[in-house]
TrEMBL record:
Localisation: Cytoplasm, Cytoskeleton, Cilium axoneme
Keywords, sorted A to Z: Cell projection, Cytoplasm, Cytoskeleton
Residue ranges crossing the lipid bilayer per the database entry: none
InterPro entries given in the database record: CFAP300
Cellular-component GO terms for this entry: axoneme
Superkingdom of this protein's organism: Eukaryota
Function: Cilium- and flagellum-specific protein that plays a role in axonemal structure organization and motility. May play a role in outer and inner dynein arm assembly.
Family designation: Belongs to the CFAP300 family.
Coiled-coil stretches noted in the UniProt entry, renumbered to this chain: none
One Pfam family per UniProt: CFAP300
Keyword Cytoplasm attached: yes
This protein's name: Cilia- and flagella-associated protein 300
Length: 204
């Protein structure tokens, strides 16, 4: 990920309403401070947004998880060995393939349903999948721990939680938006926003 993933943080000190997400996202990409500092990757080089955003498509991404229990089924379904090593498997296209990546991508995988459809929609799962699959230069890990630990750390940095004073239960108070911003080409970003902060990370 070195040099190929970036996190930029912007402050938003007004009220945010989920039903107004599309207007919020469009205003964000048109804000002078954002335009002057937000970057995208082209040909492995970070460059400024050189063309104005004309429209956006916004999708609210579920973000309710406050623990890593979502991934518990992975440890007992045959994807991992008792040591935590990921089980390798044969693939027609990718010579160095494993059961974890197959479960993440292929619906006909025998392990695909160990993570339910609702859980697969969670921001935590999307983050884990992004880190596991990586990009064109990704060197895959042999064990599950680096993926789980990195996902946990990044997730904690991106979202905010609070404790209910009555039930003492923790809950996520951030809203996660998947935004497709239309310029001269597609730019896809995921935004995590709460009343306290706005965090954006780019996917090349």
């Amino acid at each position: 990920m070195l040099g190929r993933i970036s996190a930029q943080s912007y402050s938003f000190d007004q009220s945010f309403y989920t039903y107004n997400s599309e207007k919020f996202a469009l205003c964000f990409f048109r804000d002078p401070d954002v335009v002057s500092s937000l970057k995208k990757m082209e040909a492995s080089v970070w460059v400024p947004l050189d063309k104005p955003v004309v429209s956006v498509d916004v999708e609210v991404v579920p973000c309710t998880k406050v623990s890593m229990e979502l991934f518990d089924p992975i440890y007992s379904c045959g994807i991992l060995r008792p040591s935590g090593h990921v089980v390798k498997c044969f693939h027609d296209v990718y010579p160095d393939y494993d059961e974890l990546r197959q479960m993440l991508q292929e619906e006909d995988s025998e392990h695909y349903n160990v993570i339910g459809r609702e859980e697969r929609g969670e921001f935590l799962f999307h983050l884990f999948k992004h880190l596991c699959l990586g990009g064109e230069l990704c060197q895959y890990e042999d064990t599950i721990d680096p993926y789980i630990n990195t996902t946990k750390q990044v997730y904690k940095d991106l979202i905010s939680v609070q404790k209910d004073p009555d039930t003492k239960k923790m809950s996520v108070v951030s809203t996660v938006l998947k935004v497709s911003a239309h310029v001269s080409q597609w730019l896809s970003v995921c935004s995590s926003c709460s009343h306290e902060k706005l965090c954006v990370y780019h996917e090349s």
